[in-house]
Amino acid sequence: MPTQLTQRQKIGISIIAAAGFLVLVMIFLYLMTHPVVTNRLRDISIIILAITLIALDAILMVMMWQIIKLLMFLLEELKPVLESLQETSSTVRGTASFVSEGVTSPMIDVSAKTAGAKGSVRYILGSLGIKAKKQTPDPAAGYQPDWSTGTAAPSGGATHTTQETTNNGEREGI
After folding, report:
1. 162 is a domain residue
2. pLDDT tens-place string over residues 87-109
């Protein structure tokens, strides 16, 4: 929440800025009139600047060395993790192909052959005039497909109720 400066604060800031500017002008004039002091200050400033640059270079070299050590550490630690990840992914790939080829495909084949045999037996029995006994669904089995109509229906005789409702609707002309 910015606050507005009062008139008194503005005057105080202006006075401080003017005094600072006046001090800088006085220092400049003093250095212009006394060349010996100016030369000594220049030499001292150059020495301080050189020492500062040497210290900054040393700090920069230490920081670069630490970064190199960190990168080497990360590379050494990440390589085993990546190798382990590759081993895990190949194991998962092998397991998936085993389950697909060794378990799922044979089960699908057996199921398809069983369904084909069941259909063939039903056709043969139907052509001989023998009707297959209708199985009552097991209520504990849950949701079971109704293979005779090709639709799925809940178990427990709900198919018969739906069929009766459909037959009643046909009689009434609905």
Report:
1. no
2. 999 999 988 888 888 878 888 88
